[in-house]
Amino acid sequence: MKENNLSSAPFECPTSQVFEPYFRARWQNFQNIVSRATFFSKMPSEWITYQNVYVRQWEEWASGFVLSLHRGDFFSTGMGKTVVDILVKECMRGNYRFDSADSDASKRMSGWADENNMQNVIMNGFYFANRIGNAILRLNLNVDTGDLYPTVHPVNRTYFQVNRKGQVVKARFFDLLSDGTTKDDKYVVVEDRVMLNGSPYYRVNVYRFTGTATNPELQANETKIRDTKRLGSAKSALSDLYGEIELDTWYKLPFKTLGCYNWQNTSTSSAISEMEGYSDSSLHTALDILYAIDYNYSMGQLDQYFGRSFVLLPPEMEDKGHLIYQGVDYEGYRQIKAAPLAGSVFVQVPSSRGGILDGPPVQPQFIQSDLRGVQRKEINDFYLELLASKVGLSSSTLANHLTYNQSKTATEIDRETDTTDVTVANKRALANLAINAMLADICAFFDIEAEVDITWNRNGTNNKDAIIEEYARGTMPLKECISRLHPELTKLEVEEWVAELQQEKQASPYGNDINSIFGLGDEH
User: Fold this and answer.
1) With contact defined as beta carbons under 8 Å apart, do 99 and 455 qualify?
2) DSSP code per residue over 311-379
3) Residue 1 above 50 pLDDT?
4) Mapping DSSP to helix (H, G, I), strand (E, B) and coil, where does residue 16 land?
5) Pairing relationship of beta strands 199-211 and 328-330 according to DSSP bridges
6) What is the pLDDT of residues 94-108, one digit of tens each?
7) What is the DSSP letter of 476?
8) Residue 76 DSSP SS3
9) Which pLDDT score is estimated for 121?
């Protein structure tokens, strides 16, 4: 697919002329732009439109370099990548655990997760989902060794469809089998998964590709590999992933589902509502502000450049062959030629003096433009605050210096903190749907009868006083109250704590006075 070479900067933007050598030097670092022509050739046409219109924009802004803008017109501040990195950090804050009422089930699942680097999988899931809207968790099985391990794939390398229940019923994954230096080592693996009559199946095809790892291109259809023996040294890599399987052959998966789980970033999609299961990037509504931040920064750089180079030239010093004054031909007049300073030399209005020999000598005057440092800072801080509100972060979370712009009450600080916490809670809730669905299939695979789910050790949305007050009113069960106050406790530990509290209440001289148990009542 041909790359878009048009610029998205303002027409005749002065930065593209002034800083052209600098932009060209920066562009050298981004020449190996990843091309997904191989992936596009295997995707439905409606997916390609979604990729080009939305996903490509999200991904470029999230990477900090928009090809059509930053290669020759604007400087990049990388705020898109900063936002994504902060969101991922906040989502992973406090870490997590796999919890179950059965302690043995929790231990087995935690051990399996540690062996398969689940920490990195979950972190990448948040990263991909925040960047481009969706990530797909996938359970992988080597039929020879029986190894079961998870991977996560961004939606710009995966095509999927969901049913009305939100379950993935069709998926296609694209991966490079290896990136060797010889021609025989370069292959593309395309894995298809589909539900048929309520049962999940998968098929693996391998294609030879040319080019580089960042710019792979499939050859004609006849280059599809039919026999694994033709893979040469790459056969061992394929066997490590799938075992000894036949290519282009359907195999049944040992799961109740397709083994693919949709990790959404938002519950709904304002981009393309017709594509069920797809959601928006965290940057979807903030692209205009990211553009404005880079524009403001670039114009500031332009002001500094002009402030150091512009010269105001007196009209008497224009380029003249000779000067005649009061009938005298002054051949010794020193001429100033403006040609070497074209573009940065301007001529003053004519002098009101009677002649160049009267008064002080004329001389060039440098134009020190008002760089407006304070004003630009105010504009930039305004953009940062607007950016924070659009992506669901508090202003102090996005930029620490915004906390000290003015004094704030404790209530205002709590509200700011709640902004980030609510966003994180929503993203975790959507992630839990995919992760818990995967955990259910893993438990069934390993014959673990207990239910295991992911629990976050730190949940900032819990207000201690509000929880205790709600429990005191009788609108929250004791078990739920303890779980929210102490998310670090397992379900079994919560059960034990509830039992101990019940025993203490029965033996307490204050009876069932819940306020006295939590130390909220009057002193006795």
Assistant:
1) yes
2) EEEPGGGS--S-EEETTEEETTPPP---GGGTTSEEEPPPP-SS-TTSSSPP--EE------HHHHHHH
3) no
4) helix
5) unpaired
6) 888 898 888 899 999
7) S
8) coil
9) 96
Do strands 365-366 and 311-313 pair parallel, antiparallel, or not at all (unpaired)? antiparallel
Radius of gyration of the chain (CA): 32
Q: Which residue has the higher pLDDT, 476 or 446?
A: 446
Q: How many residues appear in the chain? A: 524
Is the model more confident about 470 or about 54?
54
Give the β-pairing of 345-347 and 453-456: unpaired
**Tokens representing residue 481 in the block:** 């109250």
Residues 76-133: tens digit of each pLDDT: 888 999 999 999 999 998 888 898 888 899 999 999 999 999 999 999 999 999 999 9
Distance between CA atoms of residues 361 and 321, nearest Å: 20
227 — phi, psi (to 5°)?
-125, 130
Residue 215 neighbours by CB under 8 Å, 6+ apart: 32, 33, 34, 35, 37
* Residue 107, both tokens: 């231990």
Q: Looking at residues 326-336, what average pLDDT do you find?
A: 54
pLDDT of residue 328: 61
CB 428 within 8 A of CB 398: no
Give the pLDDT confidence score for residue 408 in this predicted structure: 57
Q: List % helix, strand, coil for the chain (3-state, nearest 5).
A: 45, 15, 35
8 Å CB contact between 292 and 5 = no
**What secondary structure does DSSP assign to 265-312, as a single string?**
SSSS-SS-TTSTT----TTGGGHHHHHHHHHHHHHHHHHHHHHHH-EE
CB 205, CB 195: distance < 8 Å: no
Say how many CA atoms lie within 13 Å of 109 toward its Cβ: 30
**Is 90 exceeded by the pLDDT of residue 32?**
no
Asked whether the predicted pLDDT for residue 36 surpasses 70, the reply is: no
* Three-class secondary structure of residue 247 per DSSP: coil
Going by pLDDT thresholds of 50, 70 and 90, the confidence category of residue 468 is confident
Q: Could you tell me which of 208, 165, 170, 203 has the C-alpha nearest to residue 186?
A: 208
The Cα 63–Cα 13 span in angstroms is 23
Contact 427, 129 (CB under 8 A): yes
In degrees rounded to 5, what are phi and psi of residue 154?
Answer: -70, 155
Q: Are 311 and 365 in contact (CB under 8 A)?
A: yes
Q: Give helix 287-309 / helix 79-92 axis angle, nearest 10°.
A: 130
pTM of the model: 0.76
